[in-house]
Amino acid sequence: MAASESTADKLIAQNRRASHDYSILDTIEAGLVLAGTEVKSLRGGKASLAESFATIDDGEVWVRQMHIPPYSQGNRWNLDPVRARKLLLHAAEIEKLHKAVAQKGHTLVPLKLYFSKGRAKLLLGVAKGKKTHDKREAIAERDAKREIDRAKRSAERGR
Question: What is the DSSP track for 117-136?
Fold first, then answer.
């Protein structure tokens, strides 16, 4: 294995709905406390961030409802697939997140789960929920940009 392959991030799961449902204000990378069978299951590329969210309880950050399926050869060592998992952050980062979440309408949303240098990492976003009209505006902007790009491409081909 080349050195560049071992240092590259390996994406396991991504929360695609997050950018649609929320405006992401800030992001922070956190480590995860996992059991051995959970790591093996993640190495197989299995996980879901669809319904997950993060909370701050007693100065510790926890990710909840993140689904890591049981490892097929894990038998009795497999844990609950949707158990709460502790996130590893510095105290200053936790305080920063606590202040951000204290504002009305802000929440912590897991965005990506990946391996970085052999360690499982979770990209956590401080997000504010979008209203329905904001979602419609974002879709309209994306469609307009797509139409402009198409027109540019067809104009370049016509030359």
Answer: TTEEEEEEEEEEEPPHHHHH
Neighbours of 127 (CB within 10 A): 24
- pLDDT tens over the chain, length 159 residues: 444 444 568 899 899 888 888 889 999 999 999 888 888 888 888 888 988 999 999 989 999 999 988 887 877 777 778 889 999 999 999 999 999 988 888 999 999 999 999 899 999 999 988 887 777 888 888 899 999 999 999 888 876
Q: Which domains does the chain have, with CATH numbers?
A: 8-130 (2.40.280.10)
Q: What is the pTM of this model?
A: 0.76
